Amino acid sequence: MKNGEIAVEVALEPTLWKDKKRILGLAISFTRYELTESRLRVKTGLLNTREEELRLYRVRDISAQESLLDRLFGVGSILLHTTDATSPTLLIQHVKRADQVKELLSAQVEKARVKNRVRAMEVGDSGGDDAADDEFDAHDE
After folding, report:
1. Count of domains for the chain
2. DSSP conformation letters of the chain
3. Is 8 part of any domain?
4. Which of 19, 57, 66, 68 makes an SS bond possible with 112, Cβ 3.0 to 4.6 Å?
């Protein structure tokens, strides 16, 4: 092995979706998105590049946004709320077929949660032990 080589073989996941951030409907920006079975990667920049990776099991909530201008150019944005410390919110901006991408992301998030045995907990501000009572009642049935 030569200096600088790494002797680890990485299992590559297939890419399920990829696109670029679009400006006026054209893919002329330097922000690229790539979705695999367990991760979402965001690569930005031309000369100085930055790559951010989000594990899908960390996604708590997904929402879609479309302005009038977005609809005119056939694009939309997707907002992800996560438990990731470095990216508590991640915005996938101005991509084609945002509604279909949102559904694909939602399905992949659920698969990743099952695979990693992660369960989303809803925390409510009920002021009492109603959540505990509901959980107890569910087990009694």
Report:
1. 1
2. --TT----PPPPPPP-EEEE--BTTB--SSEEEEE-SSEEEEEE-SSS-EEEEEEGGGEEEEEEE--HHHHHHTEEEEEEEE--SS-SEEEEEEEETHHHHHHHHHHHHHHHHHHTT---------SSSHHHHHHHHHHH-
3. no
4. 57
